Amino acid sequence: MGDPTGSAGGDFQFTVRSPQRSEAGGPLVFATARRARAAGLAAVRAAQSALVIDCAALGPTDSAGLAVLLDWLAEARRAGRHLRFEHLPEDLLRLARISAVDGLLQQGV
Question: Average pLDDT in the 29-43 region?
Answer without folding.
Answer: 96
